[in-house]
Design goal:
114 residues; mainly beta; Jelly Rolls; 6-stranded antiparallel sheet
């Protein structure tokens, strides 16, 4: 029997993560989250995560450092961070972005700082 579950999430009522992320719809193998109006930063220490991330910039600007390569992200840019890749972000201008992670980042402590 096919899974016919329909999930609708209103971002105004979504749970928030420890770093300001808003958790959106989540399935068994993928989840979405939003970073809304994140303030400019000097950058965070590099991390490696146990999930793959794809993202899209709605507004603002940032730099993604991925395995030593710096990529500038602006409205309309999308990106991929492979599972296990060392990466960090530096927000240059108030940023709103949507990300999808597989498997879901917020399950089993995957979203914890390592």
């Amino acid at each position: 029997m096919a899974d016919t579950t329909v999930i609708k999430v209103d971002a105004a009522h979504s749970p928030k993560g420890p770093d300001g992320q808003v958790y959106l719809a989540s399935g068994k193998g993928i989840s979405m989250r939003m970073w809304r109006d994140e303030a400019p930063t000097e950058g965070k220490p590099p991390v490696r995560r146990d999930y793959e991330t794809v993202g899209f910039v709605v507004s603002g600007r940032a730099e993604l450092t991925l395995e030593g390569q710096v990529v500038r992200l602006e409205p309309g840019s999308s990106w991929v961070v492979p599972k296990g890749a060392e990466h960090s972000y530096r927000i240059l201008e108030a940023l709103t972005a949507i990300e999808a992670t597989t498997p879901p980042a917020q399950v089993h402590g995957r979203d914890e700082t390592a």
